[in-house]
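TODO from last week: model F-box protein 48.
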Amino acid sequence: MDAQRAAGRDGVEGGRGGAGDFVSALPPEISSRIFSGLDVESLCHASVTCKGWHRVIESSERLWRHHCLAVRAVCQREIDCDRGNGYSWKITLLRNYWKSKVKQEWLSGKYSNIPSQFSLPEKSMYPMDVDTWGEILEAELER
């Protein structure tokens, strides 16, 4: 075996994957298992690494479903609505991921004692509907 082949630099399975793309050589369930350990941001980054990884990640609803259900703990109404409207797990997750992060910070009281709007961190705001702001206000009133 030559050095290039040992390093995985020749195409995998007749060029199906890119240079060094070991994922395309694995059965889909094994590839999916490997990617299932990634957080949402890492999964998105891995998806744009190469065509082989993109194909595996994009075709696995299970990967996106897992993360989407975690976001649902904070954004149940939004997730249920998107799924009811026929959005895939991936699109539903991408539509609600950052909103869930910001909403969780607001609900946890992170911004309860901010003296002015200029004291808020840049990423503390996200377009949210009136129902979401109502949930945040109720949480503030209960503190």
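Done. The two ends are 67 Å apart (CA to CA).
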